[in-house]
Amino acid sequence: MATGSLYDRDALERMTSGFRVAVLVTLTRDGMLRSRPMLPPEIESDGSLVFVTRRDDPKVEDIGTTGSVNVSWVDQHTDDYVSVSGRAECVENPMRIASLWTPELQRWFPRGPSDERLTLLRVEVDRIEMWDDASGRMVVMGHDGVAADLDSEEHERRLYESRARHQHVDPSEYHLGAVDEPPD
């Protein structure tokens, strides 16, 4: 897996600081999306996200399927939203697990940092979307490091274009304002 994400690591850290929970979404072997709450990840110097988990957890098997994951945070008081898409892998590094150890991790993993079942789940970031509710703006940062500041209409247009490419349909069949329905 390549390293060295180009997005604004500091902006991601500012936007996610203070969140007590992140949601990790994986794709199961049978094609279902699975979400689970996680302690917030560490943001590494290379821009990757790192979680501590158990090697025998179902999410590890899910990651072996495609590696594609999403990590998201929502602030229920401000409605700020951060979504990170990327590729995940398990990394064996007991020394790094020990350096990341916190009382919150101890609660989830009572055998402590020396538990041989523990592994690191590393997510290389491909895309970040940050919604700032106060300004009504979506900031999208891709793998190329280019950030686009989008108002909600522009974001919706790009969302439909992305869906259209994924579903192989003509984006002109959709109009702004319709969530998942083509125009009458």
Observed structural traits:
184 residues; alpha+beta; globular; disordered C terminus
Give a verbal description of the structure.
This protein is an alpha+beta fold and about 180 residues long. The protein is built from five helices and nine strands, in the order H-E-E-E-E-H-E-E-H-H-E-E-E-H. Strands 1, 2, 3, 4, 5, 6, 7, 8 and 9 form a nine-stranded antiparallel sheet that branches. The protein starts with 8 loop residues before the first helix and ends in a 17-residue tail after the last helix.
Shape descriptor: globular
Distance from N terminus to C terminus (CA atoms, Å) equals: 45 Å
Using DSSP, what is the number of strands? 9
Which oligomeric state applies? single chain
Helix content: 10-25%
Radius of gyration: 18 Å
Main sheet?
9 strands, antiparallel
What is the residue-mean pLDDT, rounded to a whole number?
A: 77
Helices and strands, in order, run as HEEEEHEEHHEEEH
Q: Which residue ranges are poorly predicted, with pLDDT under 50 across at least 5 consecutive positions?
A: 1-6, 162-184
Sheet-strand content, in percent, reads 25-35%
Total number of helices: 5
- Helix/strand class: alpha+beta
Summarize the structure.
With about 180 residues, the protein is of the alpha+beta class. Helices cover about 25% and strands about 35% of the residues. Strands 1, 2, 3, 4, 5, 6, 7, 8 and 9 form a nine-stranded antiparallel β-sheet that branches.
Topology:
Blueprint: H1 9-16, E1 22-27, E2 33-38, E3 42-43, E4 49-54, H2 58-65, E5 68-74, E6 81-91, H3 94-100, H4 103-108, E7 118-132, E8 137-141, E9 147-151, H5 152-167
Antiparallel strand pairs: 1-2, 1-5, 3-4, 4-7, 5-6, 6-7, 7-8, 8-9
